[in-house]
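Submission sheet (multi-component)
Chains listed below:
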Amino acid sequence: TEEGAGVSGDGEDLSDLLTDLSQVHNSRERASRLFQWLISPVPAKTFFKETWEKKPILVQRKNPHYYKGLFSTAEFDRILRQEDVQYGVNLDVTSYVNGKRETHNPPGRALPFTVWDFYESGCSLRMLNPQAFSSTVWNVLSILQEQFGSMAGANVYLTPPGTQGFAPHYDDIEAFVVQLEGKKHWRVYNPRTEDEVLPVFSSPNFDQADIGKPILEVVLEAGDLLYFPRGFIHQGDCLPDAHSLHITISSFQKNSWGDLLQKLVPAALEVAMEEDVEFRQGLPLDYLTYMGVQNSDKNDPRRTKFFSRIESLMKKLANFAPVDAAVDQKARDFLHDCLPPKLTAEELASSVQGAPVRWERGQVTDVCAQITEQTRVRLLRAGCARLCSDGDGVLVYYTTDNSRVYHKEEPKSFEIETEHTDAVEFLIHSYPKFVTVGSLPCDSEEDKVLLAELLFKRGIIQTAEPL
Amino acid sequence: TEEGAGVSGDGEDLSDLLTDLSQVHNSRERASRLFQWLISPVPAKTFFKETWEKKPILVQRKNPHYYKGLFSTAEFDRILRQEDVQYGVNLDVTSYVNGKRETHNPPGRALPFTVWDFYESGCSLRMLNPQAFSSTVWNVLSILQEQFGSMAGANVYLTPPGTQGFAPHYDDIEAFVVQLEGKKHWRVYNPRTEDEVLPVFSSPNFDQADIGKPILEVVLEAGDLLYFPRGFIHQGDCLPDAHSLHITISSFQKNSWGDLLQKLVPAALEVAMEEDVEFRQGLPLDYLTYMGVQNSDKNDPRRTKFFSRIESLMKKLANFAPVDAAVDQKARDFLHDCLPPKLTAEELASSVQGAPVRWERGQVTDVCAQITEQTRVRLLRAGCARLCSDGDGVLVYYTTDNSRVYHKEEPKSFEIETEHTDAVEFLIHSYPKFVTVGSLPCDSEEDKVLLAELLFKRGIIQTAEPL
Amino acid sequence: TEEGAGVSGDGEDLSDLLTDLSQVHNSRERASRLFQWLISPVPAKTFFKETWEKKPILVQRKNPHYYKGLFSTAEFDRILRQEDVQYGVNLDVTSYVNGKRETHNPPGRALPFTVWDFYESGCSLRMLNPQAFSSTVWNVLSILQEQFGSMAGANVYLTPPGTQGFAPHYDDIEAFVVQLEGKKHWRVYNPRTEDEVLPVFSSPNFDQADIGKPILEVVLEAGDLLYFPRGFIHQGDCLPDAHSLHITISSFQKNSWGDLLQKLVPAALEVAMEEDVEFRQGLPLDYLTYMGVQNSDKNDPRRTKFFSRIESLMKKLANFAPVDAAVDQKARDFLHDCLPPKLTAEELASSVQGAPVRWERGQVTDVCAQITEQTRVRLLRAGCARLCSDGDGVLVYYTTDNSRVYHKEEPKSFEIETEHTDAVEFLIHSYPKFVTVGSLPCDSEEDKVLLAELLFKRGIIQTAEPL
Amino acid sequence: TEEGAGVSGDGEDLSDLLTDLSQVHNSRERASRLFQWLISPVPAKTFFKETWEKKPILVQRKNPHYYKGLFSTAEFDRILRQEDVQYGVNLDVTSYVNGKRETHNPPGRALPFTVWDFYESGCSLRMLNPQAFSSTVWNVLSILQEQFGSMAGANVYLTPPGTQGFAPHYDDIEAFVVQLEGKKHWRVYNPRTEDEVLPVFSSPNFDQADIGKPILEVVLEAGDLLYFPRGFIHQGDCLPDAHSLHITISSFQKNSWGDLLQKLVPAALEVAMEEDVEFRQGLPLDYLTYMGVQNSDKNDPRRTKFFSRIESLMKKLANFAPVDAAVDQKARDFLHDCLPPKLTAEELASSVQGAPVRWERGQVTDVCAQITEQTRVRLLRAGCARLCSDGDGVLVYYTTDNSRVYHKEEPKSFEIETEHTDAVEFLIHSYPKFVTVGSLPCDSEEDKVLLAELLFKRGIIQTAEPL
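Outcome: structure written.
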């Protein structure tokens, strides 16, 4: 297919693919290629048209190596050994036996000695943010978040043979279940009611009696993929003969039109009250005598008039909706949620993070060249910075100082002078093209260089050639 | 005029009027009569149609006794002497000299010795909640709040001859300036712009240069009334030959359609997200690349589509608006803002507050008769209680335990059993008629009496005859 | 007796006594006379030497009128009717039946209708701060607090015939049980152990089985007094033929040497660390290896040495104790706890509170004379103001702006300039003598008058003649 | 010297020494040997007797390699490159030019590009907690803290040639300035007054005019050591021809007798008030009339009596001092402050942290043997756990789950059953000897093994042989 051009799982493992992708110079293109690899051979276009948010889909590949390199139990073991994994924060120990779901987390650090002991006794292990410990998972998610325009997260699940770790339930995210090792028997069920289609919140644990018959039942093997939208109930258990390791990649948590409206609608009302006197006019003197729940059964013409005035005002609200400003509020949240980019070798070499300047033999060496008007620059990634107006000033929000641990850092932003707005906007819109610092629409030559230095030091832009 | 029937300021002072009004058995009727007296001879109907929220109006009566009994400087002095008036809390000492507005409040209690010293040196005195100290002001405001369906407040202003205490400004309330003693020279100005018509917030102090020419200039004398809507700039100063005492009665602070929508609109969105899957559907994957302030100049067809989807969703919102529930939220706030009713002698005699039971000669005497099914009851005032649904249960909110000091008490409410809802609603809707306890639509005879006792003990209902 | 000279309960009721006392010009003398009346005929000197904090004492007078005028059930009824008495805040409804102690407070205001209903059904009523509602109780306590040098409080107890309202227990205060009406059967028991002699905290409710035999059993009649120290267990019940009303006057809560040391000892250590290097020297490197609970059984000579060093440092601590500063901390708390003085007619006439200046016939009249150097002044009460050093500046703490409701007002104080310290100290030490403003040791004549005006406006000083 | 036996800086670098020390089986012995190396050739005994907390001492070695391996600017550069160093949190950029001390921290991560730019422009760099980034510094400090019985901290300072980064000042810690690279010119000054000997708080920056003449002036070269006690003013600047890198190792912050007394003295008073009625007796009725600052000049015999009563009570306080419990409070703070131990290979192999159990070829392998009664165990380090009574229960506090970042983790402890107290105490006192699990004084065989497993899983004990 067109979308799949140049990406193939056959005989190529993920690290090769990621190396190839590092040569794709537009990060949005990179993102769509990686997503295509994830759901291949289904074309992404088809997927988003027919499947996304609509129904489950299963990809069986008969190729256990397809997702190789993404994550493994060996990596799991290495992480336990080398990193500070804390029970309850980074790792959950769970079981689901005879319809009873339990969590067994002790306090403190999860060391192999205790973790493997739990596993041997039949407990499932869920690693909550593998992106903080695995560079590859970090890299993959940080690329995919540009595809989704919404945070991409992941959990890893390791299940002993013949056991189940979780009760049937549905989640509040779009889920891509990527089978990495072994096998797992999955059952997927339709949302139970219209109200649970694309739900806002995850469900509690269900009893088997509550969920009806599965619409999909399958044994997932290494290399296979199972996608299902939020609201679809699911459960997975291991066959007696094999353990299972899978990673669930997720996105679109609180990313609906309604979530945007939650930011937009109060803002629209505020604007309406400022701009339209109808919204500031007083309520009828006597409205409390015929409105309200205690009067809801009254057949009073004043009620009709009141409802119709309300309806008219609510309809007018749309005229005052500051849509772009509300999108920016949502964008700010997204930029805060984002993983920082995992830089390619080339990106490193041309950005502040990989600047060669260093201490050697008693002094600072390899001091970088200065940024000049001739230096050619661009954003490090299409989505790594965004210009937002914050009422008073103009702010640049950016992802490059975020942490691999969710929200460990505060939202990162800095205010820029109004006269630099055009230059930053120019840079953002020029991506993926490099432009010379001299071409930035600033008032003075000095300003151009100072602005470029500022953005370079924050890790937001890269140079065409290493400094 | 029709509205004015039976109320006249001629030769009748306020205490007579209030006595007359105590014989008006419907508190809403009582309220409209008192309001008519306030603005007489302008018919209330005309006033609300042509003047209210639209323009200033002046009533000159040539009758200095018209408002007699409402408040006086002698009462002011008595209050200072007998009550705990605190500077900054209950009393402000101000001056406006050579365009400079100052406040002179020392800490602590405002005693006559210091207060009159300030007055003698040319300072104005503003008493902030005379209703807490003056029974008459309390009575008048507690009646008027039923007319407005919104809190009625008051400030008293005492100004020495030849001085001005405040800079020109506009307020966020409808103002009735009632001249009580002496004279005051007033100037009223139009709102400066469309945005300042019926404004949401009060203005800062203005310079004389900012406010243009007055549309009304007058010397108010005792017995006169000046009304102006929120947003109309005003200033008053004393002539060299007379001090001035006036009370400003105010209402309709934060009581606009927009204020109601602030409660309604988020609730409507919440319902919409629960009931309509369109609100739960995900945003477009790429919306951040063409929406937001940084893309607002882009001519992108996807923007048009996005705007039109937003518009369509916002228009639909009205379908989900829980109007009665939002009105109840507003009603709850109003009931919290309300002054408690000042009971008439008759109301006292037939309610818990005036029950004759007392200690005399070593024992409890005059024990009241029990409430029985034959007892006839009704609400103490039309607006003293309200049935609101609070998500889970049904609550009765009520004003009779409020304080004369604004929000000194928490909102007063109690939950009633679902099977008592109809009975309370029946009582509310029966007002001003008395009904027998036996006629309450409750499951059992015992329930009827228990419910009536509960409402009686809270001071919400009165009996037709003293118990 | 000498102490009792001039005060007698015979035929003289409390209001006469209080009138007499208003002629006693030294408030400390006034306090000791009132206390003498309370415990008459026991001489106060004897009482404090032999009884106070040591054992119960009973005074039976066969004079039911002795305490007449202090409080009555009629006053109780009046308060319910006229004041805002809140269940749980100002009034408790209790019962003690078959060994079970219960509280029956409903929410909201305590109106006669419901209160007397509880009483009739056998519940006891405890009014928690009668001083806020009764001028006489306020007056008596505000005088007695000068006698105790510690807050004087009171509760009123009304008990129906044949009932008991409280379980046996002991309190954390010295208690003077003053029988006002009817009769009550009292039993008093010794503290159960040495640890419960003069206890720091009140006890829980005891079972009858826990408290042994009473050391005192008596039927208290109107006019009688029963005193017992904190720690003495007590219970009282009504005989079938009479109700009981008593007021318990209390003092010396948290007023022990230990309470003072809690302020003094940390301060002493702070001074010691500043002034004596021995306190700043480091601990032994290895002290954790032989000290601490896990090493407490070790027989290690280093432990002995460590203990002895600690002992030596603790003994030295006394040398650094800022005793007067700690007493001032305690004094500040006391002044905050104090009731404001209830002024006599004469005090009123010569202080800011009773200044005759008033509004009459359209203007301020009876403007007071100015304070001049010839004006003779003194503190309004011996204990109404106190000079305390607060680290940086010198502050005057005072009681005259306190509320009759405990701690309703913040502690009242103001900073004075260092050069006014001597003058305020001079005033304090001159009491009860009047001194001329001109005799205040200030730098300038103007300063003397300004300081006197300041103190006069705060209600701290009175003039020898009305201004 | 005796103390120095087996540790020498000649030709041996720190990693060899640390390897040697890993063979020293008692962690306290290990600590004292490492400390001896630090101050060699001065014998530790002599040092602590004559120098510690008393005066500066200088060790010039003419051996630039003596401290090699502890830290280097190359390591500094590596850390900037690889770790998340944040300006203001982990790194300060400072300058001291013409008597003006400035800090230049930008927000965000400190990358080599910006850091070396600051350095090149003459700024000094202070790394605030090198132990979080350097394993060697972590190891050294975690060993030394057992020598000091108090937290050992460190800062690293890198100064460009010809500059000074800090104003003269004194600190609140004992400081060991270890010169690592280049040279630095130091001046040390006596405490200015008795009050600044062994001060509780660090000083502000001083002007050169405030500090007098240095008592020690020297150019420190790589391999040299300068120690000075808290309170000694110091400043260091670089000669024009060489940069300087030094690490300052510190200890004994808030570790004085007075700091212990701050925990002990309030506790002693609490006990005294419980146990001795003299502390609970009331203050004199009239003490406020002769005590307090306003009475401090009075010559009143009651003052003498009051002072002497206070003195007597304060002297008695020592009798009630719960010294071991207060030491435990201090110990708890210390265990919270501690770095976690950096385990040697051998410690790793025999503790939970290095247990060989792992995931290999699709399954859990190398499962450890079980702990049995025959297993021989001991604490991992002498000071890694401590038994403290916490009022109600007995708690084990421990350091093995602490973070290398100061107080990043909450204090770590767990309650043990009372019947296990003896066993834990036995284990603590047996150190450095191994004991069999069977020899633990527990009630049952099962208990012994369960307790050992618990302690093993927390990382508190090691086994004599790998499991």
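Remark: Chain A touches chain D through 40 residues (CB under 8 Å).
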